[in-house]
């Protein structure tokens, strides 16, 4: 069941989820230790982290696909490594 409610001018989806006992205990411990103010805040943070990781994976995958399509190089391994270092620094 999904509900839409407003909270500090943000529209949030409210959902009911089931957790395994170890996961629920871990969430409770994080809130009890005041690392997070609520389970919802923690779950949202975990989702944000997972989304950021997925963006990184997608970026790496795109670079690999581009490299595979570029063909065979006549450059030495050292030249290729140096070019890769320069590109990586420029991409950051």
Strand runs, count: 2
Give the helix proportion (percent range): 55-70%
Mean pLDDT: 87
Specify the structural class: alpha+beta
Ends distance: 41 Å
Search tags:
92 residues; alpha+beta; 63% helix
Plain-language structure description:
- There is one protein chain.
- With 92 residues, this protein is of the alpha+beta class.
- The chain has a domain at 39-92.
- It contains 3 helices and 2 strands, in the order ββααα.
- It has helices spanning 21-32, 39-69, 77-91, and strands at 2-7, 10-15.
- The chain has a two-stranded antiparallel sheet.
- The longest helix is centred in the middle third of the chain and has 31 residues, at 39-69.
- The chain is elongated, with a radius of gyration of 22 Å.
- The mean pLDDT is 87.
């Amino acid at each position: 069941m999904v509900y839409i409610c407003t909270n500090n001018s943000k529209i949030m989806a409210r959902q009911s989820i089931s957790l395994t006992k170890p996961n629920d205990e871990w969430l409770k411990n994080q809130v009890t230790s005041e690392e997070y103010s609520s389970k919802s805040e923690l779950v949202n943070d975990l989702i944000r982290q997972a989304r950021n990781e997925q963006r990184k994976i997608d970026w790496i995958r795109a670079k690999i696909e581009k490299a595979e399509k570029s063909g065979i190089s006549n450059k030495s391994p050292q030249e290729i490594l140096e070019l890769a270092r320069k590109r990586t620094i420029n991409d950051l």
